[in-house]
Amino acid sequence: WTSLKKSDWEIGKLTFYQRISSTMLLLMLMLLGTYI
Asked: Does Transmembrane helix show up as a keyword for this record (predicted)?
C-alpha cells in the first residue's frame, strides 16, 4: 500500500513539473515573440 502511495506521489510530482516546464516554455516563446 505504501509503495502504491509513493508511486502515486511520484507521478503527481512529474505531472506538476511538466505543467510548470510547459508554462515556462510558453512564456519564453511569448517573450521571444515580442523581441523579434
From this structure: yes
